[in-house]
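Teaching soon. Got one?

===
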Amino acid sequence: MDVTSEADGTAVVPASAYSADGWLVTSAAELPPMPLDAVFGDGRRVNLVDQRKDPVSGLAIVKAETTVAPLTFSDQTFPRVGQFGMAITTAIGSGCSAAVSMIGSDFLADGGSGVGYFRLRPAPDDWTAGTPLVAADGQVVGIGTDAPLGALIPAPIASVILDELIRNSLSASTKFGFRTIDYAAPFSSRLGDFRSGAGVAIVQAKSSAEKAGLQAGDVITTVDGHPISSASELSRLLDAASSKVTLTVKRRSEQVQLAIKRSTNS
């Protein structure tokens, strides 16, 4: 389906059904203010009554006034390089199309990224942020993002963000310009011999976290000297923190300390 502007009816961004009660996932990059419509592949046009955006990932959700059949999001953190999938797009009111593409690399192979992504090679024609990639088993493995161009946020990371948006309660880490996931396989197996901590999944562009040097793939082990073992424990400490925190970060064989300020917009 597509999200369109009620003013002129033009397509804005692709969207996918995330929950049965009408929440759709899309990209925040080009999403205009309300009022908006969702146009389904069978031509139905449904009014959207709410939209919420995550400033760190660039993902957004919109609420349609209808029930939908949601897609299933994979719980595999990073699909393997060489895996094939189908990028699903919808021409307004005229069915859908699927472009077959292969996963060619990810942020660890490419190096130095602020986003924990995987990338398609070749990228499908007319690739647009918000496009879902569906594996052969029918599960969504990633959602297209604008940064870096042509990359996708893995489904389990996207699911955490989307669930927070539905609850209207974003993780405290977003106030400091980044997002984390629990440090677990297969994510951990490619980063080094670490046993605990919160894995950095996404760093917001131009944020204090990016300026301090935080990168996707870093493992945060302490906040102001307090050890942490999970993303939820990190969030609790950040929620109670002052305007500035010092993080101990492991980056493969290195350990560094980074001072990060709370966003003035939080």
In short: The CA atoms of residues 228 and 234 lie 6 Å apart. The two ends are 33 Å apart (CA to CA). DSSP finds four helices and 19 strands in the chain.
